[in-house]
Amino acid sequence: MSIEKTKNSTKSADFVQSLKRGLAVIQAFSEEHPSLTISEAAKITGISRPAVRRILLTLKELGYAECANDRFSLTVRTLSLGYAYLSSKNIWHIAQPHMKHFVDKTGESSSISVLDETEVVYVARVATKRIMTIAIDVGTRLPAHATSMGQVLLAHLSEAELEEYFKRATLESFTNNTITDKSQLLNVFEQIRENGWIMVEQQLEEGLRSIAVPIRNSNGKVIAAINCSAHAGRISSSVIQEQFLPLLLKTAEKISKDLATYDSSLL
Questions:
Q1: How far is 119 from 164, CA to CA, in rounded Å?
Q2: DSSP one-letter string for 35-100
């Protein structure tokens, strides 16, 4: 047997297919599908009904799911899976004071997100008490192509990573301003790399204006993005660029610096 075949065999042996299926079933639940029958979960995941049944019953036995009238739904215990990430990655607590200072200065909300395949996932947020159509909190997932933070994160992927992204992504249009053309997005990404920031005008939601800049680790690699979002009817684009952008860039710089200190403390 060749070395290459041995490596592949080892990798296959280490891969736990049942865990992959279990996670897929958990992810089948959403705002659109808060409860599912076994058949519905099987259809969404593409996993056989018997396998889905076993997974859901296991989740129920462990307290991660409950069942009523043959419909399964996740329990609050499932949140512990997300909080496990947040607690293990408590580096984002470092960002909170800097974000709060920014929000106090501007009166507008600020968030940090990371890229997860075709979506951004919010990992930190300091909000103002304003009413928005989209309810955003830590753990919220939004399509990367239509958000300022998503565009910043996509702009700093390698060519191979970007190609993989475009293969997987559904470039859905949310407003008349949403960019859904690959070549246009690539041009936007080039501008982001040159300028170091991006302002997105009502691409995800009508009336929502957002600006974002990158956050880097100790090696200078972009690992997250931080934004400031405001209602377009209340805050003009000039105010965001002239007043908020310099503050946001400084905030990102301070967070990046603290993250570098945090990284070095673990060495």
A1: 13
A2: EE-HHHHHHHHT--HHHHHHHHHHHHHHTSEEEETTEEEE-GGGHHHHHHHHHHTGGGGGTHHHHH
Q: What is the average pLDDT value for the chain, to the nearest integer?
A: 87
Tokens 């997005």 correspond to what residue?
185
Cβ contact 241:204 at 8 Å: no
Q: Per-residue pLDDT tens for 49-95? A: 999 999 999 999 999 999 999 999 998 788 767 656 655 556 678 89
Q: Which residues pair with 72 in a beta bridge?
A: 36, 67
Handedness of CA 179, 183, 185, 188 (dihedral sign): negative
**The two structure tokens encoding residue 140:** 């919220």
CA Rg value for the chain: 21
**Pair 155, 165: CB distance under 8 Å:** no
User: Tens of pLDDT along 208-246?
Assistant: 899 999 999 888 899 999 999 988 888 899 999 999 999
User: Which letter does DSSP use for residue 178 in this model?
Assistant: -
> What pLDDT is recorded for position 86?
57
